[in-house]
Amino acid sequence: MVVIVVVVMVIALGSGDESTTPAPSVTATAKAQQTPQGKSERADLVSFQLDDRSESGLTNIWVVWTIKNNSSEKSDYSWDWEAVDASGTRLANGTQLDTDVQPGQTALGEYPTTLKSVKGIKLNVTSFDRTASY
Predict the structure, then answer these.
(1) What are the backbone angles phi and psi of residue 74, rounded to the nearest 5°?
(2) Model-level pTM?
(3) What are phi and psi of 41, to 5 degrees?
(4) Which residues have CB under 8 Å from 43's CB, separation 6+?
(5) Per-residue DSSP letters for 90-120?
(6) Cβ atoms within 10 A of the Cβ of 40, count?
(7) What is the pLDDT of residues 56-81, one digit of tens each?
(8) Is 43 helix (H, G, I), strand (E, B) or coil?
């Protein structure tokens, strides 16, 4: 009986923190995905390429990118990519993230790969997504 009363009192009184955070609205998300001059969000990925930093016989190949936030909202970006050879065989793939990019801001990024060469390799972005950052 005492346990039930205590539980009811805790539930009734709550934790004392009555603050709430509004859930992201559909209109805010849609607004963040709009870009000036009708550009698609994919246009925010200004460059995405391989950078061969190999030297002294050690392979060291990275993917490097530039993101330019053309929206009016702080944004998070994620994209999937693959590296394929001339015959279409996928040699590497990954997912990259760039978060909290301010409106008008340019963000640079890099990430190492397991590729052995850049010769004859084509990078494909297989999916790209920009969302409003909260």
Answers:
(1) -60, 135
(2) 0.69
(3) -65, -25
(4) 35, 70
(5) EEEEEEEEEEEEPTT-EEEEEEE---S--TT
(6) 11
(7) 999 999 999 999 999 999 999 999 99
(8) helix
